[in-house]
Amino acid sequence: MLRSIATLAFAFFAAAAVALIGRPVLRTAIVAAWNDPASLPALSIDPRIHHEAAARPCAERIADLLPKAMAQIESAHSRPFSKSPRIGVYASYRTYARANGLGDAGIAGVSRAGWALLSPTLCEDEHDRLAGVLTHELSHLHFFGWRSRNAARPPPWFTEGLAVAASGGGGAEGVDDDEARLALRADIRVILDEAAWTDFSAIRFTREPACVAPCDLWTYRQRLAFRQAGLFISWMRARNPEKFTLLLRRLEQGEIFDGAFDEIFGETPKRLWRFFIDDVARVQPASHLPE
Ligand SMILES: [Zn+2]
Predict the structure, then answer these.
(1) Could you tell me the distance, in angstroms and rounded to a whole number, from the CA of residue 118 to the centre of ligand 1?
(2) 216: which residues sit within 8 A by CB, 6+ positions away?
(3) CA-CA distance, 54 to 221, in Å (whole number)?
(4) What is the mean pLDDT of residues 215-233?
(5) 275 C-alpha to center of ligand 1: Å?
(6) CA-to-CA distance for 35 and 8, rounded, in angstroms?
(7) Residue 120 DSSP SS3
(8) Angle formed by the axes of helices 241-252 and 257-265, to 10°?
(9) CA 59, CA 37: separation in Å to the nearest integer?
(10) Where do the domains of the chain lie?
(11) How far is CA 194 from CA 32, 130, 154, 204, 260, in A?
């Protein structure tokens, strides 16, 4: 009898484990846990940085960039880091995809569990994006580092916009402020919903952007979305820096985004976005002014 109960229990847990591992999100989380960046060797000149052996030169470049990038984020977020950030630097796209919790090597940087994980592309073809993406990821580490693990998360457009604004455009390279404003005026506007922007296909616009070859439309629409969200955050902060800083502090304490936002600004994010769009529409771009 006991034996058959044990067999049944084993079968039940085995079936549950197979079912759970069969879920893609859980599977990538388990794979990421098996590929913990802490197991990579630490850089001797800066043990906050761990790297694959072949990524050592890139890790050394990051050690040079890190103090300035951290200072920039502490200034933009008006507060020091709650804990020291840790950086994982990869030479293998396969290992990077396994470690980043998304199973996707196509994203340049990911922050998770107190780590900023950086794609090999930032050490190779896209080395000119290294400082910007590093600083962008530090914004995420700073913000989430102050919050308890189970605190409600703000919508991704807010944290991505914050990271783009705080890093001076990291993650939105290739689309500048003027181009993002021109798109806003042409009603090509990113939709500020709850979509997870780590999945770029989830980003939606009021009108689909287009770009001319060799522009890659997939990359362009992601960068345009990030830049427009960053512009909105910068506008919000410039309009009332004290209120914006208060919003950050209250979100860091784990308050629900919509409630804290409405209370501090006296408006919903959607209404404030409307005011922002009106402001953008009022300012005539220099290229359109009569000579
Ligand atoms: Zn980001």
Answers:
(1) 12
(2) none
(3) 32
(4) 96
(5) 25
(6) 33
(7) helix
(8) 150
(9) 13
(10) 22-146, 152-291
(11) 24, 28, 9, 11, 16
The DSSP output letter for 205 is B
| Structural class in CATH, domain 22-146 | alpha beta
Whole-number pLDDT of residue 201 = 87
Distances (CA, A) of 167 to 173, 242, 289: 11, 20, 30
Distance of CA 289 to the CA centre of its chain: 36
Is the separation of the CB atoms in 171 and 226 below 8 Å?
yes
Question: Which positions ≥6 away from 153 have C-beta within 8 Å?
Answer: 159, 257
Measured in Å, residue 138 CA sits from the centre of ligand 1 at 9
Q: In whole angstroms, give the CA distance from residue 22 to residue 32.
A: 15
At 124-167, the pLDDT tens digits run 999 999 999 999 999 999 999 999 888 889 999 999 999 999 99
Determine the distance separating the centroid of ligand 1 and the alpha carbon of 172, expressed in angstroms. 10
Phi and psi based region of residue 78 (left: phi greater than 0; alpha: psi -120 to 50; beta: remaining): left
Global model pTM greater than 0.85 = yes
Helix (H, G, I), strand (E, B) or coil at 91: coil
291 CA distance to ligand 1 centroid (A)? 40
Amino acid at the residue 64: D
Other CB atoms within a 10 A radius of the CB of residue 149 amount to: 7
Better-scored residue on pLDDT, 62 or 282: 62
Alpha helices in the chain (DSSP H): 2-21, 24-34, 56-76, 93-99, 130-145, 156-166, 177-185, 217-239, 241-252, 257-265, 269-282
At 49, list the tokens: 């940085």
From CA 135, how far away is CA 183, in angstroms rounded?
26
34 contacts: CB under 8 Å, gap ≥ 6 = 98
Q: What pLDDT sits at residue 150?
A: 84
**Residues flanking ion ligand 1, Cβ below 5 Å:** 160, 163
